[in-house]
Amino acid sequence: MSPRRRSVATPSEHDYGLRLLPVTEPVLRPQAEPSRLLPLAAIRPDFDAGAVLVIFLALGGLPAAPAGILTVDEEARARRLVAPPVKRGFIAGRWLLRSALAALTGAEPQSLELRAAAHGKLFLTGHERSGPCFNLTHSGDLAAVALVRDRRVGIDIEAARALTDRALLARRILGARERTWFETLPESAREAALLAAWTRKEAVLKAMGTGISDGLRSVEMPPDDSEQAVVHEAEPSVAWSVSQLPVPPGYYGTIALEREARRLTIWQAQPAVGP
Known about the structure:
about 280 residues, about 25% helix, alpha+beta, 6 helices, 2 domains, globular, CATH 3.90.470.20
């Protein structure tokens, strides 16, 4: 999946505190000029045409979410979260997700009913005919949501970090053939390879709805970074298209899509400026 430019949609009546900027390179702008920001409705034409949408939201310096975005239950859950980074990621992720779903369904964000499956994957009820399949992720100062119609999708981003025991992590997440490839890498390349492999595998498991509870070694894939079908041992007949995302420096990101790759359009959400 390769990102392409998209047309400008008719302005939306409500943007719920967020506007959009097209992303054509793996660098998110700290703050774009207000005149360059587009309404949330700009995502509709590509979604209706069958494209996969990815919307990033930088969390650093983000203002409080507007009133009426989160449900009462979500606000209560946010209050229970103690660690500030976790609370910030949860609130910003739900703000981004509900705003995007509202733009696609025409419903108010707070009215959208999100339910969690057995392993925590969210799905939207009440909009089965028009609503998207979606997946949400956040790490460090970055959140992202992927949306597409009529097929499972998973997204994972990970902030770069020092790995204290690369050999142990490799045994935990890599299958036998993958470890053979991993051991041919120079020591300096192994940390990045492990984090990239983690995001690719977790994106598939999140798309399936199992999350990493199913074990990262249950997903096996070619070691290169090209778009490849990934075989999961629980669903060997399902082909997964797995693509790296153009994330900013210091992050790793992958999107996994059931069956063949689709056209990918990428946006950055930013706080709305002005009326």
